[in-house]
Design goal:
The structure is a homodimer of 313-residue chains. The first copy, chain A, has 313 residues and is of the alpha+beta class. Helices cover 31% and strands 25% of the residues of chain A. In chain A, the strands form two sheets. Chain A has a seven-stranded mixed β-sheet with strand order 7-9-6-10-8-11-12, with helices on both faces. In chain A, α2 (55-72) packs parallel to α7 (196-204) and α5 crosses α6 (180-190).
Chain lengths: 313, 313
């Protein structure tokens, strides 16, 4: 069965969609500014479960996943639209009010007005489409396609926490009824943080040659970046910054490559640029190679990373 | 139970959403141009039935409903995004390819590139979010709020056909198996036309004081326009341009006020401006009054139009 990535590539090739393929589409706005825009669909029982979260947290996450796409371009978010379809059982509760409450809290933090969208009925499940647009100085949007052999690979924050949180939720643990470490992991899954400030910082100082947010998982997103840049990568598995709370669950090394939804930024840059920039919470995890389309993982022994990560299909 | 319109008004008031409430949001683009943007959700078994249509026609309709919102602002469509969630039974067919094929045919006609969106899995039903942005000279977007007492009310094309087509589909008639008149009605439901050229024409000659597209039904959309403009309206029911094919079903007067999805343009203008502009396919159907929030229907006897039209809730 074809994956959603193959489908998108197929559609892109067939219809000559030159704009499709980065975290956001990039469009000219005026003589000094480009506009970037993204849409992310969240579907009940596929992307979230209503019994795992709260309406407020779902509102936060719906916006955060799109803000993360904006961050991955190095752009500043400017406005948002929200399309939401809900079944009748939800319409007759305060779910939507609380959802907008959560959404608005994060939107205010980033000064992003809600300018429109749609509200509809669905037969059974909640469906959300989160649309966010941002702005970036002309030609400065950080694409996936700019990585060069020899560039170092960096990641913000820590990885694997959201996947750990997901496993906990699937195992029956709930945010309100667990200890500190498990709570922290579940929070990474339910209330992700978009690295908007880090993305802007990297853009404004021209520090990144390519960037993507980690939504599908480190390996999968590194493959996306390598494909777009026509390069390969060597990951140093021993230095990957696993979420410190993962050790409560199992060896952390099991997590970071596979789990998605950390919404950290994965970017490439000549090594010297970053070391002199003294960025906080940035870890060098590997290097771009000429081995096109291949991601190697280096630790005790050299092996090839399986091409996995979260796929809807 | 509150309606979706009440909900949107409530959200708008609560969060001070000044941009929400027209067919499109209006945003500054550059010194000479405003950007307008709209999103429309289409949900399987709520907004369409897969056994009534074809994937290609559904692709056409998904784009047309949003183009109609752009038309209602008098704007020129510039780009689109498409978010689509499909269940596994659909993913494993050629549905999406044929859907994009239909979508692309209409998009090419209007020179609208697909710049992005999302593809996701759903548990059970197809869900589409159609996002289109357009451009209009600065300050020239035609809002719902500009109608003045004494303005005439006009409508493009004919009304009620899409509602008639819906009734036929609900009664078991299918496009490929009916005669000419029924086929024409079903086509109005399945393959609506967005009045993009008419909208642009009205904008470029400053002919309309207020405009909305007829998606919820003539009465409902006239109420939206009157609410936004803080005026009332008098409809002359005997001159409403019913779809000529409706007579095959029942007295046409039963249809036009209630049925939605005609995607014709409803606009207001000083009467003289329009008569001298010699627009084709435009009918004067009434007049704006000072009777705030009240739509009267005038025929043999004066009566008030019930405040109906399509609501999701």
């Amino acid at each position: 069965m074809r994956s959603e990535f193959e489908f998108i590539r197929n559609i892109k090739d067939k219809y000559g969609l030159r704009h499709v393929g980065d975290d956001c589409a990039v469009l000219p706005k005026d003589s000094k500014t480009d506009c970037v825009v993204t849409a992310d669909m969240l579907v009940e029982d596929i992307d979230f479960r209503i019994e795992w979260t709260t309406p407020q947290l779902l509102g936060v996450k719906a916006l955060a996943v799109s803000l993360s796409d904006i961050a991955a371009m190095g752009a500043t978010p400017k406005w948002a639209m929200l399309t939401i379809g809900v079944p009748e059982r939800i319409w007759n509760t305060d779910f939507l009010d609380k959802f907008y409450e959560g959404w608005t809290t994060l939107a205010k933090h980033h000064d992003v007005p809600l300018i429109g969208g749609d509200v509809s009925r669905t037969p059974d499940k909640i469906v959300i489409d989160s649309i966010v647009a941002g702005e970036v100085p002309k030609g400065k949007a950080i694409l996936r396609s700019g990585a060069k052999p020899g560039d170092s690979i960096f990641v913000t924050g820590s990885l694997g926490g959201a996947a750990g949180g997901l496993i906990l939720l699937e195992s029956g643990f709930r945010y309100s009824k667990v200890g500190k470490r498990r709570k922290a992991l579940i929070a990474r899954q339910l209330r992700p943080t978009a690295r908007v400030e880090a993305g802007k910082h990297l853009m404004s100082r021209s520090l990144a040659t390519a960037m993507i947010d980690i939504s599908d998982g480190l390996r999968a997103d590194l493959y996306h970046l390598c494909d777009a840049s026509a390069v390969g990568a060597r990951l140093e598995s021993t230095v990957i910054p696993y979420d410190e709370n993962l050790s409560a669950l199992m060896p952390a090394s099991e997590w970071a490559g596979l789990g998605g939804e950390d919404f950290e930024l994965l970017f490439t840059s000549p090594r010297k640029k970053i070391s002199s920039a003294k960025l906080p919470l940035i870890t060098r995890i590997g290097e771009i190679t000429t081995n096109v389309g291949v991601v190697e993982v280096v630790a005790e022994n050299l092996r090839r990373a399986p091409r996995t990560g979260y796929r809807h299909f």
